[in-house]
Amino acid sequence: MLPPIDPEKRAYQTVYWEDPEAGIAYPRGLNDPFPVGMMTDGPQSAHDPVMAEALDWVLKVKARPDDPSLRTDLISWLATSEANAKAFRKAERVWQLTGDAPPAHAEIWAPGAPALRQGRDRPQAHHGPPKGPPILAVRARASRRKVWLGLASAACAAGIAVLLLPGLRLAALADYSTGSAESRVVRLADGSVVTLAARSALAVRFTPDQRNVELLSGEAFFEVAHDATRPFQVQAAGLRARDIGTAFDIDIEPGDLQVAVQSGMIGVSYRDGDFPVDETLTAGERLRIDRSTGRADRGKEPPGGVAPWRTGNLVVEDVSVSDVVQRLRRYFPGYIWLRDGNLGQRRISGVYDLNDPVSALKAAVEPHAGVVTEVTPFLLVISAR
């Protein structure tokens, strides 16, 4: 069941539905919807050869925009399959996010373009590129260093590399993502519902036999539609969670991974540490895994207390100040600098308002002789008195 939209927090929660024909996802309830997420058309892993080749073509076109032989070769490659044309459109949009020039040779890759039609043996479905600011669902090959060097150069030229590049990487890998202080509810093609917390990103890779998703960053709450023939599997920073119909939360933090189950049953495995993890969790249980060692700490979590961030609350018990700062960073539209390491190690418990991260920080550190200084609207400095 989809959680209701709070009219007072409309800017922080957007609900999406998918339009398979257009290949995009629209926000629900807005008067003038615009495309905000691109759907995947099947498995698009980080090693997708079609997307890798499309990214290479983008670089070639940017380097030699007036080369007639390159144009001919590109037309031939685009005409080979609809998948090639779609991948090229998505790769172009990654480049556009850097503020570079409009897509080169759009007249030959846009759906319905005469040059592209001439190279095809059979009619293809046509639908124009989405208008408005897109958030991409491109699955780029992570190892394609030259692509990111090109993006870095464009971003540096605009003077915004520090802020832009992390978002560009997630944009290239994710089907859905969120910004600061934003949550999004996405209904997947199988009927499952995923709620993304702030500064989170999700990739979807469904096939006729499998339902695989990857939480690339942040936190997400999954309400999985039952399908015993197609298990639902989530990957998150080395963790794998598998179930056939339940509700659970996964949180990726720099030092640990956390899983909490609201209903049903879920299998959890982790192999990246010194201590392999294989656990089965049921409703009301949680698991915390130390990412450096693989040590797992199992405990209880009241089902009603799973993912309290969905109602605007951060609930912590015996965690460090630095952990709380890290979580609140997702809800602040800038940077939070914790200067004092000793203060960061202090243990705290409490309930904090995610809709007011500055006040939440003050409530967390002031009882421990900490001070929050607002240097600019986009920079907070936390220090000891």
Question: Explain this structure to me?
Answer:
This protein has 385 residues and is an alpha+beta fold. The protein is 26% helix and 31% strand. The chain contains ten helices and 22 strands. It has a ten-stranded mixed beta sheet, with no helix packed on it. The longest helix is centred in the N-terminal third of the chain and has 15 residues, at 49-63. The model is unreliable at 1-47, 97-110, 115-149 and 151-163 (pLDDT under 50).
Please render the helix and strand layout as text.
Layout: E1 13-19, E2 24-27, E3 37-38, H1 49-63, H2 68-80, H3 82-96, H4 106-109, H5 114-118, H6 145-157, H7 161-173, E4 176-177, E5 183-187, E6 193-196, E7 201-206, E8 211-217, E9 219-223, E10 232-236, E11 239-243, E12 247-252, E13 256-263, E14 265-270, E15 277-282, E16 285-290, E17 296-300, E18 313-320, H8 321-328, E19 335-338, H9 341-344, E20 347-353, H10 357-365, E21 370-376, E22 379-384
Parallel strand pairs: 1-5, 8-10, 19-22
Antiparallel strand pairs: 1-2, 2-3, 4-7, 5-6, 6-9, 7-8, 9-12, 10-11, 11-14, 12-13, 13-16, 14-15, 16-17, 18-20, 21-22
TL;DR of this structure?
It contains ten helices and 22 strands.
